[in-house]
UniProtKB/TrEMBL annotation, chain A:
Belongs to the SKP1 family. Pathway: Protein modification; protein ubiquitination. This is SKP1-like protein. Involved in ubiquitination and subsequent proteasomal degradation of target proteins. Together with CUL1, RBX1 and a F-box protein, it forms a SCF E3 ubiquitin ligase complex. The functional specificity of this complex depends on the type of F-box protein. In the SCF complex, it serves as an adapter that links the F-box protein to CUL1. The keyword Cytoplasm does not apply. Keywords: Ubl conjugation pathway. The keyword Coiled coil does not apply. GO terms for biological process: jasmonic acid mediated signaling pathway; protein ubiquitination; ubiquitin-dependent protein catabolic process. Part of a SCF (SKP1-cullin-F-box) protein ligase complex. Residues 109-156 form the SKP1 component dimerisation domain. It comes from the Eukaryota.
From TrEMBL, chain B:
CDD domains: F-box_AtFBL13-like. Pfam families: F-box, LRR_At5g56370. This is F-box domain-containing protein. Gene3D superfamilies: Ribonuclease Inhibitor. Residues 7-55 form the F-box domain. Residues 219-268 are annotated as: Disordered.
Amino acid sequence: MASSIENNNEKLTLKSSDGEEFLVEKHVALQSTLLQNMLDSDCSSADVIPLPKIDARTLALVLGYCKKHADASSSKQGELNSFDSEFLKDMDMGALFNLVLAANFMEIKGLLDIAAQKIADTIKDKPHQEVREIFHVENDYTPEEEAAVREENRWAFEGFP
Amino acid sequence: MADDDDDDRITALPESVLVHILSFLPIHDAIKTEALSKRWQFLWTYLPSIQFRQANYPTANEGLVGFVDNTLAVFNCSKLEKFGVDFDYEPHFAPNVNSGIQFAAGKGVEELFLEFDSVADDLYEDVRYELPQVLYTNSSFERLRFSLCRVIPKGNVVWNSLKKLSVGYVKLSDGVIEKILAGSPVLEVLELYNYWGFSRLDLSNTSVKKLILKEFWEGDDENDDSEEDDEDDEHDDSEEDDDNDSEEEESDGEDHDSEEEEDDGGTR
C-alpha cells in the first residue's frame, strides 16, 4: 500500500493529472526545486504528491530527465550534454510545450533551459509571418496596427519583408 | 486532447516562460515577435539580458543607432542582468554607446561587455571609445569585459561587487591598474590580453585568485614612428607573435587567498 511509504524511505510518489502514480527516488526528485522545497518543509509525509497539471506521458519524460541528471551529476558534462540534445530530438511541438510547462511548474532549471532553447531555435532567423504559421498564432492586429508596431523597431525587421 | 496541433499553444504559455524563450534569441529575433499578435507586443521589453552583436546584422551600424535610440527607451525590465555591445566602432557612435551604458547602469546591470572591433586592429588610440567616467563608480557590476577602448579613470574606481574583469587591446598605465585593483575589493578573476602600458602588477593585498595574461604588447606601437619597422617589410614576423607574448599564466594565489582583509568593505 502506498500509505506504508515512510518519510525516510528515500522514495516518494507523484501522481499525474490523469491519475497515474510514479514512485520516485528522493535524489531524483531533488532535481526539482518545487519537490525539494516540499521535502524541506516536511510536506513529504503526504503519501502522494499530486501534479494536477502534468499528464503521465510528460511526467515520465520529466522523471527520465531527472534520473539521468541525478545519477550522472558527478560524471562527465559531455555525456549529459549529448543526452540533453538526444532527449529533445524529434519531439513534436505539443510534447515540447507540455515539457516546458512541466519544467516551469516543477522548477527544473536545466530542463526548462533546454526546452526553451529548442523553442527559440524554431523562431530564430525566421520572418514573423512564418513563426506565426508554425505555432498557429492568431494575429489579432489590424494591418495598420501591425505596420505601426513594426515601424517602431524597423531596424530589427530589416531583411525581413 | 490539448495537444491539438492547431491550437496556439505557444501564446498560452505563462509570460515568464515566454520571456525565458526570448532570452535565447538574438535581440532582433526577440523584438520581431512583437508583430506576432497583441499578446506578444511587449514581451520582449521584459528581457533581462540585452546584447547587440554586429555579426547578426547586415546593416549593423544603423541598427545600433536605432537600437539604442528607440529600443532601449521602451524596456520594462526593472533589473538588467546583462548588457553588451559588440560592433565596429566609429567615433560618431560614442553618444549612442554612452546612452547604452547609462541605460544599463540605471537598471543595475550585473554583467557588462563593450567589445569594439575595428577593421584595422590598431584603431588609433585617440579615436577609440573612451569609457565614460560614470562607469568607474558602480557597485552593481559583477563581471566586466572591455576591448579596444580607452580606460582612463580620473577619480577613484569603485567596483565593490566586481568579481571578474577582462580587458583586451587596451593600454593600461601603472596608475590605472593600481586604481582598478584598489577599487575592486572582491575581484577574483583578472584577465588581460593584448595589453600594454604598465610595468608592475602587484596583486598582494587583492583578492585575485586567478590571473590570465595573454599577448603582452611590448613597447608603444601605435601612432609612433620612432620605433622602426618599415611598414612594407612584409616578412617581418608580426609583432604579436614575438617570443614572450603568448604566455598564459594562471596563478592560484595561494598566499593572498588567506589574507583577505575583513574590514575592506566598510573602511576604504
